[in-house]
Amino acid sequence: MVSVGYTLMSEQAGPKQLVDHAVRAEAAGFDQLVVSDHYYPWLDSQGHSPYAWSVLGAVAHATSRAQLMSFVTCPIRRYHPAVVAQKASTIGALSDGRFTLGLGAGENLNEHVVGGWPHVQQRHEMFEEALQIIRPLLNGETLTFSGNHFDVPDAYVWDRPERPVPMAVAASGRQSATLAAEYGNGLISTEPDRHIIEMYDDAGGAGQPRYGQVAICYGPDEAECRKLVHDQFRWFGMGWKVNADLPNPDSFAAATQFVREEDVAEGISCVEAFGKFVDAGFTHVAIIQVGGETQPMFLDWAQEQLLPRLREL
């Protein structure tokens, strides 16, 4: 059976709201809680972006059953990879082993706050070095590392869960799928692309978890849902190459100024989109409900109607 997750979308809710949503989602029956790790929202209208790791700590303490995951954390600019390993192990200990560290190569939107955004080739090199640092630290090893981009003279993570925190890696092509298989314990992809799964399996990832994500907007009025999605989520369909390089919400607003309401609405669905991930071979799929203020209503509906229907898939 596919694990059904709920996304704590930090760009559209404050920290206390996110913890409340997590508790409600667990009670509603969601299997997993994933949290976005941003410094900025995509668009000003979303209105939030608290520190994801503080939220994760509070969620770990306030919940008891649901699996937790960062979706995703970039370990190459804003955070040093050795610090990412420490943070992840702490959340793993707080949650009694319920946490998975989701990692990706990041976006300019969040990482430029500490300096320049490297070229994509350099980012990929940095990302692989970061994985080489994080993995042994999660496993309880003492690490000395000297690379082209990172140095770790001497590091050891003292507080860890009984089992090392698993690490899932975001992939969009053969190179990143190979990295995910070599260093991680799972694959993350935002597209229901069977070819990504096949590349991951061919590289040695067969049998490991595969994580996807689906955006929806539930509400009593379809016209209002369409307006909300256009206002807050019209960036969603621009693709990784664009989203990775735009520097701030104003840039996303400018890049999407000609995106029509009907264009966005076509890309936001529910059971059909979820089913595509299932058919492609994903084992975990997290739902994003667009709109911070709509979450309590959505969670009530999900418990009564959505989750039973998705579990039938």
From TrEMBL:
<dbReference type="Pfam" id="PF00296">
    <property type="entry name" value="Bac_luciferase"/>
</dbReference>
<dbReference type="InterPro" id="IPR011251">
    <property type="entry name" value="Luciferase-like_dom"/>
</dbReference>
<dbReference type="InterPro" id="IPR050564">
    <property type="entry name" value="F420-G6PD/mer"/>
</dbReference>
<feature type="domain" description="Luciferase-like">
    <location>
        <begin position="10"/>
        <end position="245"/>
    </location>
</feature>
<keyword id="KW-0560">Oxidoreductase</keyword>
<dbReference type="GO" id="GO:0016705">
    <property type="term" value="F:oxidoreductase activity, acting on paired donors, with incorporation or reduction of molecular oxygen"/>
</dbReference>
<protein>
    <submittedName>
        <fullName>LLM class F420-dependent oxidoreductase</fullName>
    </submittedName>
</protein>
<dbReference type="InterPro" id="IPR019945">
    <property type="entry name" value="F420_G6P_DH-rel"/>
</dbReference>
<dbReference type="InterPro" id="IPR036661">
    <property type="entry name" value="Luciferase-like_sf"/>
</dbReference>
